[in-house]
Amino acid sequence: MKLTIITCFIIILVLILIKYNSNNLSFMTGKVEVEVENFFQAPPNFICKKDDLACILSYQTYNKDCKNSFGVWKKFQDLNHNRKINGKTLKVLAVDSTKNPNLSMAGNFDGPRVSLVSRYQISNYDGRLNLKNLEQFLNKNI
């Protein structure tokens, strides 16, 4: 009986050490991370139509700041995707810039980057990524 308890304890300890070394302790926090597959992704060769706007998050899946912004971005998408503003339809999209290296919006930028794109103009957001600031950015630039 004692040997079984000690064996279980050692197995649990080894699993915790493996998780710790992989820098992934999310099973201990109860915090659920947003999967990027849940984002509305920009289709290949996306172009805004005459009456469309697109607010696009350029991210890298390896970047910690990007991962920290995923929850806010998902909420922002849920609130604003396909919303009509001043007669224009807003698309709220995301693009993994590591899979799209020629993306001119992301440039040579490491970290989350938000751009508001119309047919002929790009405005980049450079503030903190929270819902209030993103809404202000939209209101100021639309």
Brief description of this entry?
By secondary structure, the protein is of the alpha+beta class. 37% of the residues lie in helices and 20% in strands.
Describe the protein:
- This is Thioredoxin domain-containing protein.
- It comes from viral metagenome.
- InterPro entries: Thioredoxin-like_sf (IPR036249).
- This protein is of the alpha+beta class.
- 37% of the residues lie in helices and 20% in strands.
- It has 2 domains: 1-30; 36-141, Glutaredoxin (3-Layer(aba) Sandwich), CATH 3.40.30.10.
- It has helices at residues 2-21, 26-29, 64-80, 131-141, and strands spanning 52-59, 83-85, 88-96, 113-117, 122-125.
- The protein has a 5-stranded mixed sheet, with helices on one face.
- The radius of gyration is 20 Å and the shape is elongated.
- Residues 28-34 have low confidence and may be disordered.
Radius of gyration: 20 Å
Widest sheet, order of strands: 2-3-1-4-5
Give the biggest beta sheet.
Answer: 5 strands, mixed
Task: List the total number of helices.
Answer: 4
Helix content: 25-40%
- Tell me the distance between the termini: 69 Å
Q: What is the architecture of the largest domain at the second tier of CATH?
A: 3-Layer(aba) Sandwich
CATH homologous superfamily heading of the largest domain: Glutaredoxin
**Global shape:** elongated
- At the fold tier of CATH, the topology name of the largest domain is Glutaredoxin
List keywords for this structure.
Glutaredoxin; Thioredoxin-like_sf; Thioredoxin domain-containing protein; alpha+beta
